[in-house]
Amino acid sequence: MEMRVVLEGKQLATGYRKGKRTAVVHRSLDFILRVGELVCLLGGNGAGKSTLLRTLAGVQPALGGGLELQGRPLASYSVRERSTAIGLVLTERVQAGGLTVFELAALGRQPYTGYFGRLTRQDRERVRQALEAVGMAEKATSYVAELSDGERQKVMIAKALVQESPLILLDEPTAFLDVTSRIEVMALLHRLAGEEGKAILMSTHDVEQALALADDLWLMRPDGAMLCGATEDLVLSGGLDGLFGTSPVDFDRMRGSYSARNGQLRPVRLMATDDVLHHWAQNALMRQGYYGVADSSDVTLPLLAIESPQNLTWTCGGEPHRFHSFAELSAALRIFLE
Amino acid sequence: MKTKMPESHKGFLWAGVLSVLTILLVAANLLAGSVDIPAAEVWRILFGQPAGNDAWTFIVWESRLPLCMTALLCGAALASSGLMLQTSFSNPLADPSILGISSGASLGVALVMLAGGGTVAAGAFSFSGFFAAVSGALAGALLVMGIILGLSAMIRSNVMLLIAGIMIGYVVSSAISLLNFFATAEGVHSYMIWGMGNFGGVSLAQLPWFAGMAVAGLLLSVSLVKPLNALLLGERYAENLGVNVRRVRGLLLLATGWLTAVVTAFCGPVAFIGLAVPHVARLLLGTSNHNSLLPVTMLCGAAVALLCNLICLLPGEWGMIPLNAVTPVLGAPVIVYVIVRQRRIKYFN
């Protein structure tokens, strides 16, 4: 089943034009964004994520190629039309502490209201629904000043919902949030994409959450290419390797996260009684410069056998060493390495 | 559990209270002055009935009524231009005098007054001189506003922008000093008197002109309520809500420049009303929503200006205290209070 296409870029060139000089950021980007999808845009600092988002929001013109929003060139939209086609959520915290949560979300109705912005009953109902959808209905009469940063972003998402735009763009909306709010906001966006039938594109640095919740990833690689595709396809085809350039940070395909490169890893035969133990044993090993392989017939390799978190055995040639915690094991591994 | 009144109701409540207060202050201003006129007589004079004394009729019509109306309109004009500046620069300390806009207007007036060699004296403008003063003030105010607007594109930090505004004010003041140095004694004297601020600069004959221009500026600012609310979120959000940011910035520039220029041309550079009154209104209402905040700010500005004028009239037969000796005494404590309490004040966070 083919979902409705909301946004499509064909050989889109982005960048800045100042007078006669142009600074091209990307020469040729191809992408498609469909209804019901949450797409995460990943890439290092300066990879051009913000430039692409600004271009998609219509704030700066494309330098070339095609960009269509709902089958119409974005350039042909007026400011007014864009306001009902694209809802925006930005990184920075808004300075609107003197408004209530309801008033702030209701600003999203501005494209639909009259000269003084008076809300009709339907407008109010729509705002109430949006606050309900982001889980902020109970705080409708609270001042924005009383909210946490995560709650503020939820209200800004409600504002975007109230705009009733098919497309919602978010520029690193979780950058300044703590871990739990970050997860909450991402999960919320994932749910809204499906429930409200929105196409949602967000840029983020939070790779872990993006891998968990994004339907598609757009990867801005340091070589200027952008890879688009389903999360798992990109992970398994090596699309995330070297996403942040040649910095000493590697993508661990197994764990789905980036970590500091730790020189050459030494192989260890790792045996654990369950997956959780296996996972955390691997974590401890990698930190100390080892790498656990599950089934190796190479008996010359050291063997780490883990019965329980209190019962760890390390065998390397002669006597087996027994440890009663990961702390003891880690301390010993550090000594072995030297 | 504290119960909250819906903002619109609170807006109507305070609008009502402030309207009554303003009417009372208008009455008090009509009764106060160097000559004692009984309240009943003032009342009769206003309704065109013969009074016991022809001089009284003259005083009420030619002096007290214009003074009163001018104070009322100036207060509303300064307060609303202060509010518009605070919102559009998202800076709670922005105000026409701090950003140098009043100084710009003063320079325009100084050019007209001092170059005219004292022929265009304050309070006694001929019609051509009076229009020259207004257009000079407007040109000066818009020039400074334009510079500030250009700088605001380059200077991201609000505090730095304020400092830049203060610097512009200094440069403009030095130009005014230079003009004073070369001007005639009468010119300097009338400029100095004008510079102390005085709501009495508008005669009955000029009042319709002044009122018309002030009301036009006030109406323009009322028409900007919706984009002002969008600008509370910052320019990028405002643009996404369909606001043509460039056009709105231009209109805000025009409205604030116009209101400041009109007031400054007639009454001199009046400090602190534009800065402090929007804060008083926000604290009363507990909202930054301009739908109720702007009207209440105007009413509050009118009431505060009338109160200041009343204080100016206190010495009675010994004359009037200069306006700019009074406004800071009322305004500065408000600002200090706001700064001290800023962590607890909603609209700061």
**Which CATH first-tier class of the largest domain in chain A would you pick?**
Alpha Beta
Superfamily at the CATH H level of chain B?
ABC transporter involved in vitamin B12 uptake, BtuC
* Assigned CATH architecture of chain B: Orthogonal Bundle
Instruction: Characterize the biggest β-sheet of chain A.
Output: 6 strands, mixed
Q: Indicate the low-confidence ranges of chain B by residue numbers.
A: none
Helix content estimate of chain B: over 70%
Mean pLDDT of chain B: 86
Write a structural description.
- The complex is a heterodimer of chains A (338) and B (349).
- By secondary structure, chain A is of the alpha/beta class.
- Chain A has helices at residues 49-56, 79-85, 101-106, 121-133, 149-162, 179-195, 207-213, 231-236, 275-287, 326-337, and strands spanning 5-18, 21-34, 38-43, 64-69, 72-73, 86-89, 167-171, 199-203, 216-220, 226-230, 249-252, 257-260, 266-272, 290-293, 303-308, 311-315, 320-323.
- Chain A has two domains: 5-248, Rossmann fold (3-Layer(aba) Sandwich); 266-337, no CATH class.
- In chain A, 30% of the residues lie in helices and 30% in strands.
- In chain A, the strands form four sheets. Chain A has a six-stranded mixed beta sheet, sandwiched between helices. A five-stranded mixed beta sheet of chain A has the order 14-13-15-16-17. Chain A has a four-stranded antiparallel beta sheet with strand order 2-1-4-5, covered by helices on one side.
- The model of chain A has no long low-confidence stretch (mean pLDDT 88).
- Chain B has a single domain (7-348), classed as ABC transporter involved in vitamin B12 uptake, BtuC.
- The chains are: A alpha/beta (338), B mainly alpha (349).
- The A-B interface holds A 57, 59, 79-80, 82-84, 86-88, 90, 92, 94-100, 103-104, 107-108, 110-111, 113, 115-118, 141, 143-146, 163 and B 4, 7, 90, 223, 225-226, 229-230, 232-234, 236-237, 239-244, 282, 286-289, 291, 346-349.
